[in-house]
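Folds abound. Consider this:
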Amino acid sequence: MADLKFLEEFGKAFIPKKIRPRLREYLNKAGIDETPYKFFGALFLITAVITYFLYLFMVYPEIKDYAPLQLFAVTFIAWFSIQILSIVLVNLIVYFFLNLQIYRRTKLMEDLLPDYLALVSTNLKGGMSFEKSLWAAIKSDFGILAKEIGIVSKKVATGNDVSEALTEFGKKYDSPLLRRSIDLIKSELTSGGRVADVLDSLVGVLRKTRELKKEMAATALAYMIFMSVIVLAVTPALFALSKQLLTILLSIGTKIGASLQAGTTMFAFNTPDINPSDFNNFAIGAIGMIAVFTSIIISIIEKGDIKGGVKYIPMFLLTSIILYIIFELILNSIMSGLVLT
């Protein structure tokens, strides 16, 4: 417990008080109710360990023969630079995963919104007020949305205006669909119209929009399959074949060059200075880049944005590289007899 308390105080020391409210608000979007100062303190210690090993094995061997004063100055600059870069990198990774979590929560709320509003409309038709209808419609099946609407209802119960509470809820998440739905409800509340009828129309539009998105994704399925086959199978096979052809040509060129030098011909033949291992590194890098960008394109086609398909990137990346290695081994065994020695 003492160690955990130390990590908590350590984490607080490196988070300025001015940004703590914004950090807490941002973490709430990701479903984290309390600021994990212990986690941030542990992250800083991890970056310190990373900095130590990078300095010990990469920087110190190059500067160990410097004069003491120069050694101290270079060590200070190198350690500070590596530490800052490590902190930035770790924070970017954490920020990336938090953004994904916020995105998933937002999309889940958008999917649950039509069913929730339909239940609110039913409560209104049963004679409840709008505020009570919001509270009565909260069910455990609505998960994240139920939690957020519960916060709205508590704000209204403590004296806040329902329109202001809904506005704060709409601004909390980056969802145009959620904000537009709330704006439509607020305008009807302000005008004193039939909110239940508006909710019924809104529910119909939201459900139709959801079905259209599913149909669009199904229509683009053929293109997604085609792109996946090209990236996962065809591209690795072509790169593996290119490497084998390069190896054969280099072997033939070496043989021809040796025979010409042994004779008395006036011609000279120089073998191209190309290393197959360099081509192998280039192929793996190119395949990885193609796989990443293709997974992003497929994500945009299927989900409408990049965040929805981040899960495809590791799958595409690993599968394409593994298949490249497999194709390379197969072609190497098949064409080994064509390589002249």
